[in-house]
Amino acid sequence: MHYEVHALQRFSPAPMLLLVGIRTTTAAGLIGISPSTLRTWERRYGHPEPRRSAGGHRRYDRAEVEGLRDAYAETGHAASAVELARTRGRASAPPSCVRLCAALTAFDEDAADRIAAEALAAQGLEAVVEVLVLAGVDGLDEGTPEHALGHRWAAGWLAAQRRLAPPACRPEGVLVLDAGGPDVLHVAGLELALRRAGLRVLVLSSALDPERLQRAITVLDPALVVLGGRGAAVDALGRAVFASRRARGERVAVCDFRGALRCSTTVTRVGPELRAARDAVLELVERRSIAEDVPEVAPAARRGRLRVTG
pTM of the predicted model, to two decimals? Predict the structure, then answer.
């Protein structure tokens, strides 16, 4: 037993001071430049200033690199970015969609989470969704891996916030028919805002078949139907209005969010910004002025067609 203890003591490595930091390739990737460019900035501007490991390798402070990345995303110029990053020091830049775009472009979801958390500490949730999350993802080029990552990150973030929303405290229901496509995150943001306003909200695909739509409307008894997102077929509005009348025995208000119906002049448009759309929907629900907001539906709607008059 004593021999084993002495042997362990003899061959145990001496205590070492671990050097915490990120490697050159990682730091350069966060900023969006090459490792050689990062070393050039270090020599020319003295920033970022790495420490050296026992083997002589560079180790950069992650917070310093992220600050430089945010500054470079805002200025687009090396010298200006270094000056701005030095001025800010370790203090984070004000949360902005530019910083979020930079984080998502660097595939850094942890940084995106931190930026959103900072924004929530200073602003209301709806403002953060509109001016940071949605604007940040919209700022990424569609069809790129960065945009795909940003879309997944935002969808998960919105879903987490929706789970935290309080239960409905008002009797009115709102049916949202989601056309999908490029506006799906905006529709999810509107759903979150309406739930937080206390409404009963149900989101379904605009391509839902009439029988299922009928069942959903019977359960929800909506005061308002929202067609959300570009690309919804006109037939979807016809099915929604007809099913609503059949289920409720009365006309129901219908509105358009973000250009679901491009040619209609009789359906009320709300938005396209999130908070403006939320306020308009709440006003429509409260007023229930369906005579002005719902187009006349001809009997042809039974075959999935809508005739817009006026």
Answer: 0.69
